[in-house]
Diphthine synthase (Methanoplanus limicola DSM 2279), 250 residues
Amino acid sequence: MLIFIGLGLFDERDISIKGLETVKSADRVFLEAYTSRLMGADTARLEEYYGKEVKVLYREDVENNPEDILIAAENGTAAFLTAGDPMVSTTHSDLRIRAEERGIETGIIHGASIQSAICGLSGLQNYRFGKSCSVPYPEKGWFPLTPAETIRSNMAQGLHTLVYLDIKPDRYMTVNEGVELISEMCKRREEEPPELFVGIARAGSDRPVVRAGRGPDLIAYDFGGPLQILIVPAELHMMEEEYLRVFAGL
Ligand SMILES: C[S@@+](CC[C@H](N)C(=O)[O-])C[C@H]1O[C@@H](n2cnc3c(N)ncnc32)[C@H](O)[C@@H]1O
């Protein structure tokens, strides 16, 4: 059996009791470490907490060579762990389909996701979000403008945009970098950059940071360590504006 388990948002204690019991009784435990991360716990700490060896997986292991996972799931119970919820803004549906097609039973134990956490932290209503987007680190000769296009299209419909920030093996994109990149994309599209941004750092920790402001203000603000995420709000409802004043320094 292959069970996808969400670890929640920050450290080893954010997993559900159901998830923890399943990990502890699993035959093999895999940790997907490229779509998101638990910044409050490293692999050694997870292994100690679960009393199990944890095999860390990178994109290549899941998307191109998932044999090890599938064979483990054919021969016993394999737990596949992902920070957040395993099926939110990740590509794991493909693995679940592959398993089912091989006759392997699958299941999901959900975890708290950044997608809902940002609503509580920012006060922006979840039903007012449009399509989300990701800002990647630009590479030589490659500077995609699609995030700016998504933001503009959402904005025209009065919808907020959630902007996921890139994770690389050796670095994590900050809110400061995200705002700078979006402003540059708008410039290249010959558009005005958004007037307001909301930056969030370390959701799920004891001290998450939430800050709303104009682009230059957020670029200068120190959000501390990763993980970080960005929202570009559309026109605010009265209650949303009030919430940002009280909790995000608007
Ligand atoms: C592709 S999404 C994966 C979401 C995950 N599956 C979930 O349900 O939470 C990962 C991105 O979300 C943001 N993120 C995830 N967890 C976060 C946290 N605890 N605090 C701030 N941002 C976070 C970061 O921008 C990160 O690059």
